[in-house]
Every structure is written in C-alpha cells, then in structure tokens.
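Thread: quick sanity check before group meeting

JM: Hey all, I'm pulling together slides for Thursday and realized we never actually wrote out the predicted structure for the chain we discussed last week. Dropping the sequence here so it's in one place. If anyone has concerns about the input, flag it before I start.
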Amino acid sequence: MKNGYMKIKELIYDFNNEHPGLLWVILAGLILLTSFISPQFRDAVIKNFYSFVVTIIGIVLLKSELSAQRAIKEEQLKSYDKRLKFDEETHNKQQENFEEKNQKISNLSETLSLQIAKYLQTDSKWASSALEKAKIVSYGQTLFSDRFSHYQDEKKYIAKQFIPILLKRCQRIIQDKPNTHIYIVIDSGTTLYPLFTELGNELSKYARKNEIKEAEKWYKKITIVTNNLPGIQALMESGRLNPGDRYSELAVDAHILPGKPIPVYSAIAGKPTVDAIAKLSDSTSGIDSLFIGLLTGNFIRQERNNALCSIPLSRGIEHNEFKIAIYNKCNELYVIGPLGKIFYDQKLDDINKKLGFVADSQNEETKSYVEIPELLREKKEVKLVTTCRHKGFVLTDLSDKLTNLLGTNDPNEEQFINAEKLKDIPHLFFPFSKLPENFFEQLEIEFPHPFITQEIKRNLFFVQYPRSSK
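JM (edit): ok, ran it. Output follows.
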C-alpha cells in the first residue's frame, strides 16, 4: 500500500515538473465540478473554506521551494560541467607541452650521446675521474674506503704539486747521468693514492709527445714499485699510452709487489713483500740506480730537536716492516701527508696515551701506533712533503711551527729539482687554502677523526678556539 502511494506521489511530482500550473487548474476544475454534482461536497467546502485555503497556500509554497532547489541543482550541474571541461582542456595542454619537451630532450640526449661517444674514443680520462669515487666501492669493507674522503682535496692538491717537480728532478738526474735507472717505491694508503693518478697523467703526457728522440725518453728509465692495490689500479687508468684503447700499454714500467693481501688496508704486505724490495735493491748492485721512497702514515711525528727525520706512525707489524724496508733500501725518502696529520714535538708514548691507544687493546681501532726504530732513523735524512696555512686558518700556528723548524712556506722548486746532495733537498710546504671560511666548518675538515677531541686539538695541534667557544 505504501509503495503504491509513493509511486502515485512521484507521478504527480513529475507531471507537475513537466506541466507547471496545469495540475492546479485540473484540481480547481475537479473541485468546481464536484460542487455542482454533489451539494454535500459544496457545503463541506464552504464550511471548511479557511482550512482549504491554508492547504492550498501550503501546497503552493512547497512547489516554490522545490522549484528553487531544482534551479540550484541545475546551476551546480552547469558549473561542474564547465569545470570539468576546463580541467580537460588544461590536461590536454599539459600533455602537449610534455610531449614537446620530451621530444626536445630526446633530440638533445641523442646529440650528447654521439658527442660523448666520439670524445671517449679519443680521451676517457674525464670519465675515469668521474667514476673514481664509485670504484672505491669495491673496497667498501676496508679502512681505505673509510678514509678515502678524509682530507680528499688536500691529498689531491699535494699530488698535483709534488709529482710534476719530482718527475722534473728524475728527468734532470737521468739526463745528467744517462745510465741511471730510478725506482720509485710507493707505500700504501689513501694519502698516496692520488700520486698514482698524477704519475700516470704526467708520464703518459711525456710519452705521447710526437717526434721525441730516443735519447730524450728519460721516462723509460723510471720504474714504479708498490704494494698499494687501489693505487696501481689508478695508475692503470691514467697511465695508458693511448687513453682510448683498453689494450694500450702503460707509459711507465710498474710492478706490484708479491706478498700477503691485507684486506682491511687494501695492500700487500708480509715477509715476501719485504724480501722483494731487498731482492730488487740487491739486483741493482753495481748498476747506476736511485731508489726514491714515498711514505705516509696514519699520522706523522715531527721532533723539534731532529729536523732531519719526519716519522710515519702506523698500526700492524706488516705495515711497519714494509716502511722499515723502504727506509733501509731507498736513497731518497719523502714522508707525505696533510698538515692536520702531523704531531709537532710529541713523543710516541705521549701521543698514544693522549689518544687512548694501548698495545694490548682487543679493538684494532684503538691499538697503539708504532714507528720505525730510532737507530734506523738516525741513519737517514727524510724530507717532509705537506701543506702550510697562512694567517687566519685553524692550523696556522701548527704550520708556523713546522715551517720555522724545517724551512720556508714558499717551496723552492728549483732547489728541489737541482739539488745534488740529499742535505740540500728542501722540505716542501705547499700553501693550501681550499677551506671554508667558517672556523667550525674548517675544524670538521681538518680533523675528520672522532677521537681527536677539542683538548687534543688545543694541546697537540695548537688550535686557538674563538673566545666564545668553550
């Protein structure tokens, strides 16, 4: 019954929407017709006239309300249609712009690909340089990888400054004594890693010179010997005679020493390594030869009362034995390192104590440093190769103390190249300023090791903090 009533109500509502006003005319006509046919109905209408009028007014008001709601709904639908149309047009324009830009990028990338491919055929060094850091991933579980980013700019800077004048010294020696063969023996470590790249760059540049006379091929009388695994890899990348040819030979004679691989240091060490250096030295007995040793350490110790010896500090028996072998067999010795790795006027025991390192530590990271025996050091004159700081830097005071002891902060390259006697070879301090202006940002770069506390920076490296800093 209820459903039937709702259907009748919907039919009446729809009829009124389609034919507005007609329903009221029909209703009035029915009332008038019924009045003539049934006097009783007429009398009832007259009796209830006011109630009837109120009912009619209510129906009229209800119809007006419904009509108003309908008009609002129609306006909302029109507004929605307009917005939908606008969104569709905007989407189409964006799609057109995207396709246009995508086409431009595709054309540009195709052009770049052709240019890069063409450039790589002639010179791949720039790509090798960009991938250099990515290659270090292969040494991911090593101290070499951890320390690769420490002093990175400074290490590269030292290599770029030192290697050209070292090779000029070698060239001068070989040209003065044509029968001389020079062996450059290079230690392991991230500090010396950039030296291999620079050696490869410089020597391959000499070798590629056109119409060079055989007598001028002095670089062929240089042999590089090392236990540095990442270093020899860098040399193979930068030292090709033809950079675009993967089968190209190296521009320099190079040898990796035999021995026991030490994974944590990415190096070769042990008795076979030490024996190989001794054997190489003995094999040149009676022949004009010069052995140049390039050493580094976790840190370097410089005694105030002994300007002749800069001492590399290291961990592990194998590492120290290799450095001792270089000390024993090389004629010229250079200890190389960033300025922030040099202890000035500090005893080894005091350094270990202040750093909290002990010989019997179960943690390899906190074992004490060792160094080359004093009796051996007294027999050798070692030259320091590092950087210096002018006024206003975190390490200015340390730099001043070292340069006052060992020489000038303006390296005399001509003296280095032409020195005949070992005692006449100067220590090298290359001015370095590629550092942030902010004091505390400089500290982060100069001291990347967490165990170098503020107290150690003050007392061992002579850092003067701003007065507001505690």
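AS: nice. The two ends are 92 Å apart (CA to CA). The chain has 17 helices and twelve strands.
JM: adding both to the slides.
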